[in-house]
Design brief:
The active site is at 193 (proton acceptor). InterPro entries: DegT/StrS_aminotransferase (IPR000653), PyrdxlP-dep_Trfase (IPR015424), PyrdxlP-dep_Trfase_major (IPR015421), PyrdxlP-dep_Trfase_small (IPR015422). It is a single chain. The protein is α/β, with parallel strands linked by helices. Helix 1 runs antiparallel to helix 9 (252-282) and helix 3 crosses helix 7 (208-218). The protein is built from 13 helices and twelve strands. Strands 1-9-8-5-4-2-3 form a seven-stranded mixed β-sheet, with helices on both faces. Strands 10-11-12 form a three-stranded antiparallel β-sheet. It starts with 20 loop residues before the first helix and ends with a helix. Strand 6 (171-172) and strand 7 (175-176) form a beta hairpin. It folds into two domains: 21-261, 3-Layer(aba) Sandwich (Aspartate Aminotransferase, domain 2), CATH 3.40.640; 265-389, Aspartate Aminotransferase, domain 1 (Alpha-Beta Complex). The structure holds pyridoxal-5'-phosphate.
């Protein structure tokens, strides 16, 4: 492809963060302040996040990853050995690994081929007397039908922890994910998510007891109440350990980025929406299944733009990805489903036949670049490369 004498365009990565002067200045301010670990900025970030959700009183617990947040939520809910937790096979391993951290077992469910979210109508068949919780994942940033999930949970006495790593800001019936009424919702600020702190996450809950436990377990099992109670009376060296906790706190360096990323989130969302709409329009005549949009009036966060090759495409998924790479476009596959991975497959005796929709989707999916730092010219480059890779002008 490089016979021409035209200068080759630089490689367009699959994802890039957008960090500006405000984030940089806030990080520098943190570095100069002498308080670089969890402190005043992490606290401000938690309050700003609650305000963003439109519920200043909701509990927001800043953590160093969404994985940590999911783990803390399951721990606080008392999930343990002998318990089962239901989730989708079409997700990142973090969604399920936290269940194993607690010694509980994962029960995987296939996807709805339209939304690529967990197949709601297969959840009930997966419930056993040992089932304790459901972890829905808002795949790519399209909301799971939480009203249906919460209804199933209520009828069977199950807890619900939303993996909202993709879903900021996503709405369902005009309500932001995070405020749907599940036991807890966890967001990710990993480098390629819709806003980033490098590494980071937020555990959101209206359950004061859950929040209290998660705050204690976030930092070594230190009981803050005891700490606060005693610091007033005795020198500040005193603290009490009430459980073998974890080291999951978010640093102020990370929170400094988060404060400004959160402010920019509405503008980020607009840019993502515009790119998604351009792709939907420019790729509509190709042998592709384009991703579903949010229902009228709702928001899709467009964390990922996932294409599926249709049956009449003349290339395989792997050839398609190779052609995109040859034209300098990075892409990825979300996900190699859990039932394909040696650990999950062997532990639960899983086969592809058990998850026909996820398997079919997996064999055809390609995630193309969609991020706020892309220029319009770069979006058009992706459009042209996708068209050419499928043999269209
Ligand atoms: C990114 C991601 C996570 C993990 O987020 P971290 O902040 O990296 O721990 C969990 N679940 C899904 C679906 C993700 O995409």
């Amino acid at each position: 492809m490089s016979h021409s004498s035209e200068p080759k365009l630089p490689f367009l990565p699959f994802a890039l963060p957008e960090l500006g002067e405000e984030e940089i200045a806030e990080v520098v301010d943190t570095l100069r302040s002498g308080w670089i670990t969890t402190g005043p900025k992490a606290k401000r970030f938690e309050q700003a996040f609650a305000d963003f959700l439109g519920e200043p009183q909701i509990e927001c617990i800043a953590v160093n990853s969404a994985t940590a947040g999911l783990h803390l939520a399951l721990e606080a809910l008392g999930i343990g050995p002998g318990d089962e937790v239901i989730t989708t096979t079409h997700t990142f391993t973090a969604t399920a690994e936290v269940v194993r951290y607690m010694g509980a077992d994962v029960v995987l469910v296939d996807i709805d081929p339209k939304t690529m979210n967990i197949a709601i109508d297969q959840i009930e068949a997966a419930i056993t007397p040992r089932t304790k919780a459901i972890i829905p994942v808002h795949y790519a940033g399209l909301a799971v039908d939480m009203l249906a999930v919460l209804d199933i949970a209520r009828r069977h006495g199950l807890k619900v922890v939303e993996d909202a790593a993709h879903a900021l800001p996503t709405t369902l019936e005009k309500e932001l994910i995070g405020t749907m009424g599940s036991n807890a919702t966890v967001f990710s600020f990993y480098a390629n998510k819709t806003m980033t702190t490098g590494e980071g996450g937020m555990l959101v809950t209206r359950d004061a007891e859950l929040a209290k436990r998660a705050r204690v377990m976030r930092l070594h099992g230190i009981n803050r109440d005891a700490f606060d109670r005693f610091t007033a009376k005795v020198p500040s060296w005193y603290y009490e350990i009430v459980a073998p906790g974890f080291k999951y706190n978010l640093t102020d360096i990370a929170a400094a980025m988060g404060l400004h990323q959160l402010k920019r989130l509405p503008a980020f969302q607009q840019r993502r929406e515009a790119i998604a709409q351009r792709y939907l329009e420019a790729l509509s005549d190709l042998p592709l299944i384009l991703p579903p949009q949010a229902p009228e009036g709702d928001v899709h966060s467009w964390h990922l733009f996932v294409l599926r090759l249709s049956d009449d495409a003349e290339v395989t998924r792997d050839e398609f990805i190779e052609r995109l790479f040859e034209s300098g476009i990075g892409c990825s596959v979300h996900y190699v489903p859990l039932h394909q991975h040696p650990y999950w497959k062997e532990r639960y005796g899983l086969t592809a036949e058990m998850f026909p929709q996820s398997q079919k989707a997996y064999e055809r999916t390609v995630t193309i670049p969609l991020y706020t730092a892309m220029t319009d010219a770069q979006v058009e480059r992706v459009v042209a490369a996708v068209r050419a890779a499928l043999g269209f002008a």
